[in-house]
Records
---
Amino acid sequence: MPLEGAEGSGGSFEYFDHAADLGIRVAAPSLPELFAAAVRAVMNWIGPAPKGAELEIEVRLEAEDLEGLLVRWLQEALYIFQQRRAYVTGVKRLKLDGTRLEAVLLGRVWDEEDRRSFSEVKAVTYHKLEVRQEESGWCARIVLDI
Amino acid sequence: METRKIHDYLWEIPQSGAMRVPGRIYASPDLLADPKSDESLQQVRNVACLPGIVKYSLAMPDIHWGYGFPIGGVAATRISDGVISPGGVGYDINCGIRLIATALTYKDIEKRIPEIVARLYQKIPAGVGSSGAVKRASGADLRRILEHGARWAVEHGFGRPEDLEFTEENGCMAGADFEAVSERARERGSTQVGTLGSGNHFLEIDVVEEVFLPDVARVFGLEEGATAVFIHSGSRGLGYQVCDDYLAVMGKAMRTYGIELPDRQLACAPIESPEGKRYLAAMAAAANYAWNNRQVIMALAERCFLEALGIGPAQLGFRLVYDVCHNIAKIERHDVEGTEEVLCVHRKGATRAFPPGSPQIPAAYRAAGQPVLIPGDMGTASYVLVGTGRAMQETFGSTCHGAGRVWSRTQALKQGKGRDLFREMKDRGITLMASGHRTVAEEMPEAYKDVHAVVDAVEKAGISRKVARLRPVGVIKG
């Protein structure tokens, strides 16, 4: 059954220690908000949002399962960051249908000056990956390779 | 977790449950991580569950918690019935290091180091999202880079033909296939040719501070007091994408082949399966990309030295000592209980360390053994070791790769608050330039295990011997 949402303020994230890498725990009332919060967590680690030109980017993804979809979603944000030189600042629209996702991301272009404040995230791993529904909503755990 | 001491520098995790072989960890007691906060030993156990694994799931003294495989992990699987696991190579395929010797003593250029570092920082593309010295590699160029490795760089005026002999696999792994690398991976690679990267990647100027084995050091061309250069980098976004692509492929393949493992990051497929073969071909292509990058960066570094010092190439004497990878899977022949077998050796944060007489190492080094290059943290020391016969017998010819982290990034950032790390490095006699200030905090020396202790452990375990210790005097980071 498709779930629709936009960026809500209903999601939160925190980082947890992982020797060479970085762990993220995310929680949100709904699944779309969970996905939005997860991408905020990744971008927040990379650095502060730049002030360059705004743009919208359409994204369509699918995966084998929900956890895999979350990984693909975050990998897409990293790809957009590197190749399009756009920092994802928000999620305008996000539709989840089983293991398919359609979204419109909001972003800002970054430049050479912005680069000095950025820290690299190489990849999103499957290590300790978890997406779980609880009474209060949804939570996820992801480890990033940095 | 139960561990059994084999000797002072070797511990065993007995085989139990789903483990197919025991685990073996090379470390001194001090170096063994506290299992409560570091799951690296559990990861050694998980790797021991890989189908077709032979002898032991191994870990080197720089072991720390990775994802799937521990960093510092070595595992060999039989070609005939074993698996290949992209997680056993890592996202940064052929993250590796090369060492360049020069004809200059440190005393010759001590006062000029800040100037050389400034020029290196200006000319060598580094840092998050940096684009390449080669602006955008064409499709034809990228195909040649992926299938011919560092040879592309030499053909385009970056370095010399003789550099290839002093690179592991001669700078090009056989079997690389451009078609096995996804469109997206190629796109990411096209803009990053000749880039250093970020995080723990670096280019470093060092002085050879102490020589332990003068005969071997002489063969390698290392003299006390000489200036040398280390380059540490990998396959950049192309490699990360290849790993990600094939983790997804392998995740599906595991269901086809009925493989179950404790960690999804250990996703794998039989080596002889279409998925396994295709990954190996893509991995080789990414490895070639990394070797090409290090070759380009070396040539750019040489130009920086020449321009800064106003001298010619003969006077500088920039010469590649060796280049090793420490995130890779290799098809190698090894003795397994008295029979020679063809194995797939995964080295994830571990270095090949072949002994004297190995045909795979340059003829000039064959009597001495393979150079092993061990970077420490940016403020301490780096080492050159040499491989041994004991490594060949016990660890599939493998040894450690570096210092290994003890602090997480968040811990390091907390500790770095309010500190002027550039000043601290300067006080240690090191000129540091970095584009990412946070990266410097994350990479502070205290965040790493003591490289001296790691190297002592592999020497006392007999799997490598110390040849020389080098001290950093200038560092550029992304």
---
Amino acid sequence: MNDLELIKGIINEEFVDTELYRKEAELFEKKVIDGQRISFIFRKFSDDENVHILILKKLYKLNNYTIPHRKIIEYKKIRNVLRMHLIRETLSIKLYERMLVNANNLKEKRYIEAILESEKNHLLTIKRYLFFLK
Amino acid sequence: MSEIVIFRHAHAKSISETETGLDYDREISDRGIVEINDSVLKLISENFKPELVFCSLYKRAVQTAQKISELAGLELEKITVSNLLLPDAKLSETINMIKSIDKNSILVSHMPFVSEIVMNLTAKRILFLTSAWIRILIRNDKIEIISSNLIY
């Protein structure tokens, strides 16, 4: 996989996360008791992922790149949702770490580091929720 | 014409975590650093390019300004520490200062002062979470809100 394919792949995954977090935020708000808090967090995560897409497109001049349509599997149970995000966020961190190694200039490095921190925070939050569910 | 971003400082540690026991010395927390990252990334994704950053003298505001500058690729010399952004500054003087800024800038201050500034400029009552911002266009006497992040 070359750099451009890697970047496009990351953008595609970020888009899936954007959609998942948004839909789950709606679901939790309706179905989970006192679900407003987790719903708020998931909406923010959805916004964050969307910002990552915009930054990546800007950074790598991919403004015209169209994200391919993909069927997204949605889980309804909160534990399954969190487990799925645990895996997705961990993978995402690995991909950004790989991107960081390949970063060519300071600006690119700075932005990827910031996105990486954002993803690490998502993962930490998901882990906390999972911990308190047990 | 200039674009001004009114930015509330990032989440800070408690007073008991300072060496001096003074509110002034509260530093930004780990959570605050993540907040700034996300908040500034959103600004950058909107193609906002700050040329100057202003902040109050409080440590958490200065540290927020430094983090913003770092991420936006601004030199630290572009940060101006201003008494007019202190929580107890005189609002009319701060407003005059803001209206006189002719470069795209970010102003880091505190609650409820950031809300008072926005109320005065836009007649909108807004609450800021930590690291929240509102982006305002100032053109002659016309002021309009362009976008925002984490406000209520």
---
Amino acid sequence: MGFLSQIVNGLGIGSIYALVALGYSMVYGIVQLINFAHGDIIMVGAYVTYLVLVVAGAPLWVAVVASLAFCALAGVGIERLAYRRLLRKGAPRISLLITAIGVSIFLENLFQLLFTSSAKSMPNLFPGPPVSLGGLQVGRVTGITLVTAVALMALLQLLVQKSRMGKAMRAASEDTGAAKLMGINTDTVVAFTFAVGSGLAAVGAILYCGAYPLINPYMGNLLGLKAFVAAVLGGIGSIPGAMLGGFLIGVAESLTKAAGGSQITDAVVFGILILVLLLRPAGLCGKNVREKV
Amino acid sequence: MKKGRMCWAALAMLVAAMPLAGCSNNGGNGGDTVNIGGLAPLTGNVSVYGVATNNGAQMAVEAANEKGGVLGKQIKYVYYDEKGDATEAVNAYNKLVQNDGVVGLVGDVTSVPCIAVAQEAVKDGLPMITGTGTAAAITEAGENVFRACFTDPYQGQVMAQYAAKKLGSKTAAILYNMADDYSSGVAEAFEKEAAAAGISVVEKQAYQTNDVDFKSQLQTIKGKSPDILFLPVYYQDVALIAVQAKQLGIGATLMGVDGWDGVLEKIDKSNVSAVEGAYFCSQYSAESEDPDVQRFIKDYKAKYNADPNMFAVLGYDAMNILLESIKTAGTTDSAKVVDAMKDIKFKGLTGDITFDKDRNPVKSAVITTIKDGAYKFVEYFEK
């Protein structure tokens, strides 16, 4: 029973990793950019939730909508201001990567300036006793997190597979140039991808605040890195892969801690990254694409 | 030309600054005052601690002077800002001894400069008492170095005894930060003392600095259903751990040490039930009914327009211990003052203080509980 509970707890934090990993993966799939500022979008989402919920005193659903909208806008804004010119000019990937790190540092420092570096406490978002699932006691937040994450992933899968925009996204990810020639406005597709990815991160932020009610300007740092590892593990560019990777990383962390190895938890996570890169660079669900020389 | 002007300007500034730097240097030895030295970081990263400690010491001197000083003379408090730096602290110490002729030292404030100064003070045999330095190495420096605060491990022992004697606990679990000396030191002391007091520690779990997810460790702890969960960690981590323990439905009584002070500011009202009924110990309580404490709080507020924190109170007590020792010795002779301090029975704002053979204070800790979402003073407790 204890072991099962540890798995469930791991899935809880894992679904947050998964939501964030989706953003990394989708953006990478289309523009081959590892958007390191994506982790900080979680932080932005958390602070927006804090402002709406605590400072303005609005109900939770308003905070969710505001946070979602703001993060989606922030994602699009970052793409427009920081990346679009580089993408259009076909700048080398390293320039994009450095820009992404710059945006990340900018966001962290901006929020430190606005809110100071001291942590802010969040209210109890999902009050109530633990829920019982067939004799297994699960924290309410963990339950809500799991259900929300799985539902969102299903929704995303539907969006990508069935909708017109989803089709355009898939086309652009396969070959941006060809998609453009077919009359797809790839700029819109890229902006849309950033918006969706950031929106998912906003939901991740709210779920995160429910489980860990302290936020600070650097909270997105390690969280973002671990989500990135999840995306790589699942196969960067692959949506089901990002979900799988997130869950696996969460469970790996939880089990490492449960086995008494809390000092090596991060080492285990990044060890997984190294192993994946060595043994199966395309990730679990990634397609093995041979580099054209 | 431009460069030359800059040089002159710099020189002029230096000259102008000289009388400022020298302003407290004119005490000299003997004369009509008893000079006491002070060292504290008044600027820099840890100035919050230094300023409060220094304020407390200063208030003690003023109060004593109003009552006629010591040995029939007024007390002169000469203090320097050491900026939290060990080298600056040693330089300032030398200035205090050589130029200002101090007969005793209250300081330093933080552990590292404190250790450096203690090593110098041992060479001179100068009576030295730190209000707030908790590192064991400070008083280990020599026979003439004392401290007014209790050490970190002592808090762990106090809480173990309190759990056994007052709460009737039989089993305990510990969750601590293994990357932090304070946390692991207190955890170890608690574990040892718990065994002696008849509490079995059924689970000991660790985490790392900056961890936010404690559910795995807490799940393991939950499986053992201990009476108490001991958290020797700082308030931000307490906030996160307590909330997650609640989420998992852990019913153990939470206990902690002085790092808990401030936890309610980091827990939102809707989550505060997570720490309801928890106990922690600290050096001092503003809610103590001791009239001396209440008078001190009132005077401090009037003078500095701020609430006195633990550091201010310890600075005040440290200074008073030194003054009382000089009074008892009847002289400012270093060796005699040190002897008097060893045997002192002192009633301070932080409780009744005597010194053990290692010159650490033996005194009661303040037990505070959290009731209805607010800190509540419970009692003084001595292990």
